[in-house]
Amino acid sequence: MAGPIVNLGISSFGYAFGEDQDVASVAGTYVRDPERVLNWGYRTFHRAPDGVQATDLAAAAAQQALGRIGLSADALDLVVLAVSDVPEYLSWDGAAVLARELKIERAQTLLLTEGCGAGVHGPYYVASTMAMQPEVDTALFVAVNRISEFHRNRMNLINTVLSDAAVAVVLRRDHASNRWLASEQFTDPEHSDLLRIDFGGAVNPVPPEGWSSLTAPGGHARIREQFANDPDSFQRFLENRYERLVEVIDAACTRAGIDRGEIAHLIYLNDSAASISAVAEPLGLPLERTNAGLAPDHGHMGAADQLVSLGLQLERGELAAGEVVALCGISTGRWSATLIQI
């Protein structure tokens, strides 16, 4: 049966950003060829101070979202946290810690670690919980990205400037606006190792002697190495990125019972204008109906990109009541889409 499995909507947004950094001024401290970074088109990114971790950003965003509607954290039936970079500790549940930071004595929590796409498909887990548990009426969903510069070079992993931020949304059953319509996701596991960190886990607990994220090969070196002997496979990999985004958006539309032509806005990762356009064009949407205007001033905030953009565009009056917005993204090997009706 097409249509939402449960009626819920976003009633509040909250944000927490690292300190603004000018890309042109600091790119040379991260890479030897800063001109390559400047060509991506980013002007500003957010860098959290050394003492501010992902949980701090998540808690600040959550408190703002709750405060904007005068809601006590004790009223939450579910807390979901999506973390898209290295957590503060191993064998550690960031969602439970977030609940503790909010001074919740007893809570149902869920931790998502699927990378950048988790901010898109996270609301599905809220919706499915509400569908299965009629007593769950109010949920908090937080997506946070806080780059560990020891592990990753924020300007040499992919063709984006990685940025530190968190976004929190309060989702309420039967909320009439910003309604969740459907979510869809699928995984192609073939290339799931492309952007992994090779040390810090059980296989290689510590990095090689003398290793530094500032001098280590970037993420593109790993990609080139994996496809070195198969250029045709590499070309298919590049083409599939965008084709599968359209595929997963179409699947979400089918699940919601709407036509692709009813989508009025697209919010993708905070990528370059060219990449965002490649996703928007098959949907018949111009760049001004995407997040292309916001991306250069925020950088790629991991799982927080799409919901930050959705909230800011709402606050700016760029989205009209009744319009359908498609949020979409890619984690390594995972494509996701969520449809929101304003």
TrEMBL record:
The keyword Repressor does not apply. It comes from the Bacteria. InterPro entries: ACP_syn_III_C, Thiolase-like. One of its GO terms (biological process) is secondary metabolite biosynthetic process. GO terms for molecular function: acyltransferase activity, transferring groups other than amino-acyl groups. Keywords: Acyltransferase, Transferase. Residues 253-341 form the Beta-ketoacyl-[acyl-carrier-protein] synthase III C-terminal domain. This is Beta-ketoacyl-[acyl-carrier-protein] synthase III C-terminal domain-containing protein. It comes from Streptomyces flaveus.
